[in-house]
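Dear colleagues,

As part of the handover before I leave the project, I'm documenting each prediction I ran so the next person doesn't have to rerun anything. This entry is a single chain, and its sequence is reproduced below.
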Amino acid sequence: MASFFVSRVDTEIDKRIDALGTDEAKAARGKAGLANARLAYEAYQEVFSSDRWAALDKAQANKQRPLWASTGVKDKAYKDTLYVEDLVAPNTVNTMPEATLEATEDHGQITGDTITGTYEQSRAELAALEALGISYDEVVQLLEDEGVEKFEASWTDLLKSTEAELTRLAPSEG
């Protein structure tokens, strides 16, 4: 799986949009997370339709799939199923939280592939952010750095707790 955070992108970019405070900026709220994921899917399609992949597939290689993570809506102004309904495409995985799953079951409208064919619009939405002075590259680098730090902290905690438990369970010498 190749994991892509969705709502975290919007949360960070929307914070920067809100700091600008203009109507033009406000019109860009809630679009970056979807644009980012959709362009990731475009890259996925390019990789897995290449001659190189065809050779790997023939050799029985496993296809990596995009995983949409952080798909619970953080901003109450957005539809609670936004990151589910608008990120439907073949071979994707959505790790939605339970509340989002229940909302989707209750009133979600899954209408088929909502990603393919959105790539130019997605590029335009990210370009609009750049025109506002919001660096998409800076935001995704920040989120990547924060994500790595969180995973490292979790890993360190897991190692420490495992080591403590192994020490507790080890037969005492003597």
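Residues 120 and 147 are 28 Å apart (CA to CA). The chain has a mean pLDDT of 95.

All the best with the project,
I.
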